[in-house]
């Protein structure tokens, strides 16, 4: 095997580090800035990569033994070989470089057994995940990021039935246990409300309904603190506000958590299953139905309706805000905006396009420890 020596110079994208070998830039996994390593270099789509370190010549002081026995083969994590303090440094630097300032705080998480949801592929008698640079499936009996309940389900149900099934399995953890759906390969993952599987989840005094077919934050440990901070960011304003608009409202988690702060809340969401579960939560909690104006709309295809509401709440998917939403915000007059994003790059892109608003403050909520993902929670105020 032809091994090349590389000097790791910087942090790169998507969990990679930037290595230099023979004056060439290499995307390197499982290393750290300042290390000198030897590994196998290969080309993919015109770029150079190394995902197989064979020798560490100069070692980072932050390097530790990974908790997971599948770590160097599974594509789920990228920082298990480093201390959590180093992971914090990396994520904070990424945010600071794009946003121009440090966060108000870095909210730490449990780093293992924190996930309340799982998505696994099942095929050819294997159940697991794909390595970062390979299409082949790794058979996994336990994921260190998952809760004990989900890992037990992985062992008892998914691994036991992998011989008879080919497709994808999605699992969420509700207050009573496991809710799962098995999606056969080549069949649509769309599910009607009549066939929807869901469960109940209580956070403080609020009740939500969650499903493998709808979005709910995966971090069991940080989720309540994130919601409390959203409420705090609204309450810290001196003026009292009567109304709010939430785009990408999902099953209603944010709107229902802060509903006592407003007389009227408009929620916009495209997923019919999410809307069904939102209505179910309103009924279960006995909330005033007339307070909520719930609208079904595809926000990537259509613009929100004109709004004279006071506060805007945004929690979009990784793709961020569409051009139509940016245009809508620039024509509106919200007093301030609460914007939470799981993609710091699209977040930075979006806020630069908002003509009336500037970043007042932001927090890092590490919803996805041991991976390169993290959540930005921010308040935007009028310039």
Automatic annotation (TrEMBL):
One Gene Ontology MF term: RNA methyltransferase activity
GO CC, one annotated term: membrane
Catalytic residue positions: 342, 342 (nucleophile)
PANTHER family for this protein: RNA M5U METHYLTRANSFERASE, TRNA (URACIL(54)-C(5))-METHYLTRANSFERASE
Listed transmembrane segments: none
Domain Platelet-derived growth factor (PDGF) family profile: 54-78
One Pfam family matching this protein: tRNA_U5-meth_tr
Family of this protein: Belongs to the class I-like SAM-binding methyltransferase superfamily. RNA M5U methyltransferase family.
Residue positions binding S-adenosyl-L-methionine: 217, 248, 269, 315
Name the UniProt record assigns to this protein: Class I SAM-dependent RNA methyltransferase
Lineage: superkingdom: Bacteria
GO annotation (BP), single: RNA processing
Keyword list, A-Z: Methyltransferase, S-adenosyl-L-methionine, Transferase
């Amino acid at each position: 095997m032809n091994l090349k020596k590389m000097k790791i110079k910087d942090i790169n994208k998507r969990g990679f580090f930037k290595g230099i070998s023979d004056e060439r830039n290499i995307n390197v996994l499982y290393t750290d800035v300042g290390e000198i390593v030897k590994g196998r270099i290969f080309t993919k789509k015109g770029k150079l990569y190394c995902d197989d370190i064979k020798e560490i010549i100069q070692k980072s002081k932050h390097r530790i033994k990974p908790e997971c026995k599948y770590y160097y083969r599974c594509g789920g994590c990228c920082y298990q070989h480093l201390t959590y303090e180093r992971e914090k440094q990396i994520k904070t630097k990424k945010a600071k470089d794009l946003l121009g300032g440090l966060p108000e705080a870095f909210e730490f998480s449990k780093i293992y057994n924190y996930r309340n949801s799982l998505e696994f592929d099942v095929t050819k008698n294997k159940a697991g995940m794909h390595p970062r640079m390979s299409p082949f499936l790794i058979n996994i009996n336990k994921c260190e990021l998952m809760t004990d309940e989900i890992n037990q389900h992985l062992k008892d149900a998914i691994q036991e039935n992998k011989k008879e099934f080919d497709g994808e399995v999605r699992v969420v953890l509700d207050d009573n246990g496991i809710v799962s759906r098995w999606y056969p390969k080549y069949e649509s993952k769309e599910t009607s409300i009549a066939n929807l599987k869901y469960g109940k989840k209580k956070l403080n005094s609020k009740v939500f309904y969650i499903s493998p077919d709808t979005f709910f934050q995966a971090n069991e440990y940080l989720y309540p603190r994130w919601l409390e901070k959203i409420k705090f960011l609204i309450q810290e304003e001196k003026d009292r506000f009567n109304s709010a608009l939430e785009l990408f409202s999902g099953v209603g988690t944010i709107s229902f958590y802060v509903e006592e702060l407003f007389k009227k809340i408009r929620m916009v969401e495209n997923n019919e299953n999410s809307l069904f579960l939102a209505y179910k939560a309103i009924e279960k909690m006995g909330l005033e139905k007339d307070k909520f104006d719930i609208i079904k709309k595809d926000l990537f295809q259509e613009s929100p309706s004109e709004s004279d509401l006071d506060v805007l709440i945004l929690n979009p998917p990784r793709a961020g805000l569409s051009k139509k939403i940016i245009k809508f915000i620039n024509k509106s007059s919200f007093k301030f905006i609460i914007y939470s994003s799981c993609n710091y790059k699209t977040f930075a892109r979006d806020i630069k396009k908002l003509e009336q608003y500037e970043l007042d403050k932001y927090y890092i909520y590490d919803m996805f420890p041991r991976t390169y993902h993290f959540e930005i929670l921010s308040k935007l105020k009028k310039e």
